[in-house]
């Protein structure tokens, strides 16, 4: 370069190199994180809206970075998807969540009625070994399919319709259930719902937010409509992001049977989740 005046082309190159370097570094540390087992799962309780009885947990992954501390999935899942590391990461998550659930089932008799919900990434879902790996993990951990629930998004469903329809009988055979996550935020063609044997609709937090103090009458109507649709199609409803008792009461009145959110509990470490199960037993 001539002096300090870089041409836009050179500047572009410098920036490109910087970005590529950052992505490369992150990719390298993500790869190392997998090898060095720097990931952990937290478990957020899902409870009955009326009795507050524990129904299950959603497994949520975190990266315990040696220098940066706890990194949320929103930061590294997209990168893991870009780099293909999402497959080994997802397989680890699946393995870990199933082992944990199997452990609780062995320790607490009531745990055999709980469901462990696992978020499924599109690439993982598309991988040819998806079902084979699930079977392998179920055999190894001796966990039953009925203790498992797969959380998929509308966009995964829309982009992988054929794959989904071919997998469903196999999942049903194993009594593995399916939740449609963040319902109402994606494509939400109500028409496709009736074609897919989905067990549970998860109402997105953005609608639940509007329930507070009637902030948004439209959100109330949307939730009401979602619950009606679910009921008429024989599906359950879980509302996520419930933070206030007022939201819980309204959801309960609207007929939503299950809720998840900070009001009941944030995502918990495995030890804390274990204590949560223990407290259930003593009430
Ligand atoms: P999601 O599946 O919609 O998960 C719910 C998110 O809402 C979680 O964030 C949870 O901690 C947060 N949350 C729960 N209750 C409340 C509440 O009352 N208030 C508020 N403000 N937030 C609440 P998290 O753990 O950061 O996960 C973010 C997203 O990352 C998840 O959204 C999911 O799409 C993805 N993700 C998390 N774990 C996994 C995983 O194991 N595999 C895959 N593929 N994706 C994951
Ligand atoms: Ca989820
Ligand atoms: Ca969700
Ligand atoms: Ca959400």
From TrEMBL:
<protein>
    <submittedName>
        <fullName>Uncharacterized protein</fullName>
    </submittedName>
</protein>
<feature type="domain" description="EAL">
    <location>
        <begin position="23"/>
        <end position="281"/>
    </location>
</feature>
